[in-house]
Specification:
The protein is mainly beta. It contains 1 helix and 10 strands, in the order βββββαβββββ.
Length: 145
């Protein structure tokens, strides 16, 4: 179990309002987009939009049930990228895609990372887990100056 905190205080969810979540699906199946937008309650205040492309797995777990999540110790009130997670291991082992391997806690194809597991945790709201094929796109819609 290992993870990296992304964005620091700029992406903190401490005291944040509940998130607004939009799921976009497209013809042809496995090519969904998930957009999560929230307003930070702690300083620096601001509104953040996270856009996840090529989403293969999307899950929300209520805050009272986070003990049910795999790798539940990998948690912050903010955005993290989880490495060597159960979700990544399962996808690497069962996807049966030629050349896709789990190496050094990352799912790779021909030497480049092809799957990312992100987790966004909120206090008194819940946790979002997403596995996607592209790095997250972070947009600051408003920042307190």
């Amino acid at each position: 179990m290992a993870y990296k905190v992304l964005g620091g205080a700029e992406l903190s969810t401490g005291w944040a309002d509940n998130a607004r979540v939009e799921v976009l699906t497209y013809a042809g199946g496995n090519n969904s987009t998930v957009i999560i937008e929230y307003t930070r309650g702690a300083k620096p205040k601001g509104t953040v939009r996270l856009r996840f492309e090529q989403v293969m797995s999307f899950e929300w777990t209520g805050s009272d049930y986070e003990c049910l999540m795999p790798d539940s110790d990998d948690f912050e009130f903010g955005l993290i990228e989880v490495f060597d997670s159960q979700k990544l291991r399962t996808l690497a082992e069962k996807a049966r895609l030629p050349g896709v391997v789990l190496t050094d806690s990352k799912v790779e194809y021909q030497g480049r990372v092809v799957l990312h597991h992100y987790r966004l945790g909120f206090d008194d709201h819940g946790t979002y887990d997403l596995v996607c094929g592209r790095p997250v796109e972070i947009t600051h819609l408003y920042r307190e100056t």
